[in-house]
Structure formats: structure tokens, C-alpha cells
Amino acid sequence: MELRQLRAFVMAAETKNFAEAAERMCITPSTFSQTIKSLEQELKVDLFVRNSHETSLTEAGMEILPFAQNTLQQAKFCEDRVMDLKNLSCGTLNIGITHSFKTVASDAIMLFVRTYPKIKLMVYYKTMQELLEMLAAGKVDCVLSYKPSTLPSTIESHTLFDDRLSAIVNEAHPLASLKEIDLHELRRHSLVLPTAGMQARNALDQLCKRMGVELAPHIEINEVTPLLNLVQTSTMVTILSRSSIDSFKDLRAVPIIGSEEMLVGSFHILKNSYRKQSMKVFIDMLCQAATVHKRMGLL
């Protein structure tokens, strides 16, 4: 049994289409079909039910799929170890970042790229749930986000810093001079909020439920930068983490009463998995950036 056979098998299981799987692997459909056929002959069992529209796994195929995926992941760990022996002179680091966390991560990203220009840095901005699924599947090496209320048993979380859920306004807004604000007060203002599923919104919804407050936003946006741009040029109020305005000098973050310890900046990795040397260096840079921000009063 060869790794190329397992790669073809897993790709076919994911795409449910031999032609698409062959295209993704950059081989001809006939070569791909022969690879699957040779694996089936070696195992003496059919792995797929084939028809003119798509393929599906047989019972045997479903049984061995997780083992094939694990074998490929272990093989990738071996490749990563070899790459690390080259003193960070090559390789790829895959980082997942939630939208609410990207401002905090930007300094570490720029420092890493300047320090290790030969390492390809792949950054994925998605929701926390999507990124944790990518982490579990081995598609990213690390996820940066605020700590979720629950984590899959295969993932471990490490704290970087404590943040605070805050009302974000421009410097000319009447709320800008407040040291903190009650959630009930925000009902009197025009709100533009992050959409459901974003971590700041999740924390806000939890706080509203706890406080018995219902907020009615006029606008909802699933990206942090457009939210902040809108607040910059209007009297609207958004609710995000305090650190989200690090690069916006004309905005103010007013901490919301009762939101202490609701946003914990963290990085998440797979338990019992190989840690790339490049990931360790990146996390160190991220910790340094968080320390600098905290000293400056930005966190």
C-alpha cells in the first residue's frame, strides 16, 4: 500500500467524483482510476460504488477512511520534521485567524514574514467553527481566536492575553469620554454589530442573555474592518473586542460592564501532534506582540 494510493482514495472520498479528484491531484482520470483500482485489488475489496454521476464509499471504504486520513497526516508530520532540519529556510506555515482576532495578529505576521522570508505563510480568515474543523483535519497548524466556551477533545487551547468586550465609537461621539458603559445604555444608540457566529457577537449574545437585555442592530456585518470604517464616519456604535481598534487612532473603546473575562485571546493546536518549528517561532512573536500591546494599554 502506497501513500499515493491513500491520497487518491481520500481525495475521491472527499470529492465524490473521480474526474474532479484527478484534476485536483494533477493526474489524468485514467491514471487516477487505475490507482484506485490497484488499491482495491491489493485490499481485495471494493472501496467505492460507482455510477455515471458520482461515487460513494462502500462499507469497507467508510471503515478505512479515518485510518487513511490518519496515515497521511502522520506522513505529513514526517515531512514537517525534515523541513525543520533546514533551519527554517523553507516550508509552509498554515495559520487560521478569526475575523475578530486579525488586528492583534497583524504585527506578528509582518514580523514573521520579514524574519523568515523563505517560509510561505498561509493565513486563513474564517469563523472559529470553520477554523477548528480545519485544525482537526490537519489543514492548518494553529488557530488564533478568542477562547470558545467548549473545545473538541482533540484540541488544546493556550492563553495569550485577556481582552474586553467594548462599545466602539469615534472620538467625537458622546460615549467616547466614558470609562465604561452599561449594556442597557446601548439600546438608545444606533448599532452596527458583527453577525451571529463571529466571536465578539457570540460573547455579546451571552452577555445580553445574562443581563436580560435585547439589542436591535440597524446593520450587521460579517467583517471587522467595514464595521470600524462605518463607525469612523458616523454616530453609530459597534461592539467588538477592545483590541480590535489598535490600528484606528480616531476610535475609542468603552468597556462594557460585566464583560470581564469574556474574551480570552488564545491559540489552539492539536493534542499530541507534531509542532512545526516555524509555528513555535510565530507563537513566540505573537506573545511578544501581545505583551507590547498590553504595555501600551491596547489590550
Outline the structure in words:
- Helix content is 42%, strand content 20%.
- By secondary structure, it is of the alpha/beta class.
- Strands 4-3-5-12-6 form a five-stranded mixed sheet, with helices on both faces. It has a three-stranded antiparallel sheet with strand order 10-7-11. It has a two-stranded antiparallel ribbon with strand order 1-2.
- The protein is elongated and about 75 Å long.
Q: How much helicity do the residues have?
A: 40-55%
Alpha carbon gap, first and last residue: 52 Å
State the helix count.
9
Largest beta-sheet characterization: 5 strands, mixed
Q: Strand order, main sheet: write it out.
A: 4-3-5-12-6
Low-confidence stretches: none
Calculate the mean pLDDT score and round it.
Answer: 89
- How do the helices and strands follow one another from N- to C-terminus? HHHEEHEHEHEEEEHEHEEEH
Structural class: alpha/beta
Over all CA atoms, what is the radius of gyration?
23 Å
- Our estimate of the beta-strand percent is 15-25%
Principal-axes geometry comes out as: elongated
The beta-strand count equals 12
SSE map:
Layout: H1 3-15, H2 18-24, H3 29-43, E1 48-50, E2 55-57, H4 59-84, E3 92-97, H5 102-115, E4 120-125, H6 128-136, E5 142-146, E6 155-162, E7 165-170, E8 192-194, H7 199-211, E9 219-221, H8 224-232, E10 238-241, E11 251-255, E12 264-270, H9 277-295
Helix pairs in contact: 1-2, 1-3, 1-4, 2-3, 5-9
